[in-house]
């Protein structure tokens, strides 16, 4: 029984990866940098996208795919912030987005008018790590109030990410968060991913993140 279950899971993931590869090729062909943003609910995923859109206004057109179980609150938020286009995907209970969902969503965008595409995954620290969507980079976002032990508890997320963002650093004086322990845990899992410490509330640390993102976009183009 266990062997059969493993074969089924592998088959599903293989099919997903094939669609993800087509998504990747499609986005790369038109020079769009696709970012898969993974984090827990309330960590500040939408806030980071909003601040990025605002910082890039006049320099880059940003599209957004919002993944949620229900509702379209975040889609409305990024559109008000100046997203060139945004589309909501409601999973109806699913804990992650899949490549087929993104594939269908891409048909709704005017891709030639975009420079970057943020895919805000469903808030979850486990399931999204196994499902490639066609992105160029995977971003793991953690907020200070969640605690410095999350890389130890959820190692896969930090291991597979190309970038780690530590958000809400303005709260460091008020919560028990050990930055040294956090960095050490991340580096034990991932020796290459840059770690950006920032606050979407105050704007501290956003400039290096924006600069790095623009460099990555230039690489895609």
Give your account of this protein's structure.
The protein is an alpha/beta fold and 221 residues long. It has one domain (2-220): P-loop containing nucleotide triphosphate hydrolases (Rossmann fold). It contains 8 helices and 7 strands; from the N terminus they run H-E-H-E-H-E-H-E-E-H-H-E-H-E-H. The protein has a 7-stranded parallel β-sheet, sandwiched between helices. Helix 7 links the parallel strand 6 and strand 7 (195-197). Helix 1 (2-29) runs parallel beside helix 4 (99-106) and helix 2 packs parallel to helix 3 (73-81). The model is unreliable at 1-9 (pLDDT under 50).
Fold blueprint:
Layout: H1 2-29, E1 33-38, H2 45-55, E2 62-68, H3 73-81, E3 85-90, H4 99-106, E4 116-120, E5 137-143, H5 150-153, H6 155-160, E6 163-167, H7 179-189, E7 195-197, H8 206-220
Parallel strand pairs: 1-4, 1-5, 2-3, 2-4, 5-6, 6-7
Fold-level CATH name: Rossmann fold
Q: How many β strands by DSSP?
A: 7
Shape: globular
**Estimated share of beta-strand residues:** 15-25%
Radius of gyration: 17 Å
**H and E order:** HEHEHEHEEHHEHEH
Beginning-to-end CA distance, first to last residue: 47 Å
Largest sheet: 7 strands, parallel
Count of domains: 1
Structural class: alpha/beta
- Portion in helices: 40-55%
* Overall mean confidence score, pLDDT: 94
- At the first level of CATH, the class is Alpha Beta
CATH architecture type? 3-Layer(aba) Sandwich
Going across the biggest sheet, name each strand in turn.
3-2-4-1-5-6-7
Number of helix segments?
8
- CATH homologous superfamily annotation: P-loop containing nucleotide triphosphate hydrolases
**Parts with pLDDT < 50 across at least 5 consecutive residues:** 1-9
């Amino acid at each position: 029984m266990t062997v059969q279950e493993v074969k089924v899971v592998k088959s599903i993931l293989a099919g997903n990866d094939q669609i993800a590869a087509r998504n990747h090729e499609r986005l790369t062909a038109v020079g769009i940098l696709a970012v898969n943003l993974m984090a827990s609910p309330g960590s500040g995923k939408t806030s980071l996208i909003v601040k990025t859109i605002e910082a890039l206004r006049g320099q880059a057109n940003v599209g957004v795919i919002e993944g949620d179980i229900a509702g379209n609150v975040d889609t409305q938020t990024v559109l008000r912030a100046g997203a060139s286009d945004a589309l909501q995907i409601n999973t109806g209970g699913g804990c992650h987005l899949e490549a087929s969902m993104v594939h269908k969503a891409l048909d709704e965008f005017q891709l030639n008018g975009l420079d970057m595409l943020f895919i805000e995954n469903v808030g979850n620290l486990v399931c999204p790590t196994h499902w490639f969507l066609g992105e160029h980079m995977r971003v793991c976002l953690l907020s200070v109030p969640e605690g410095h032990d999350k890389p130890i508890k959820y190692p896969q997320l930090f291991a597979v990410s190309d970038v780690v963002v530590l958000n809400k650093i303005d709260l460091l004086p008020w919560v028990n968060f050990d930055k040294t322990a956090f960095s050490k845990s991340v580096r034990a899992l991932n020796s290459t991913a840059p770690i950006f410490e920032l606050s979407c509330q105050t704007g501290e640390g956003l400039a290096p993140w924006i600069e790095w993102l623009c460099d990555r976009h230039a690489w895609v183009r």
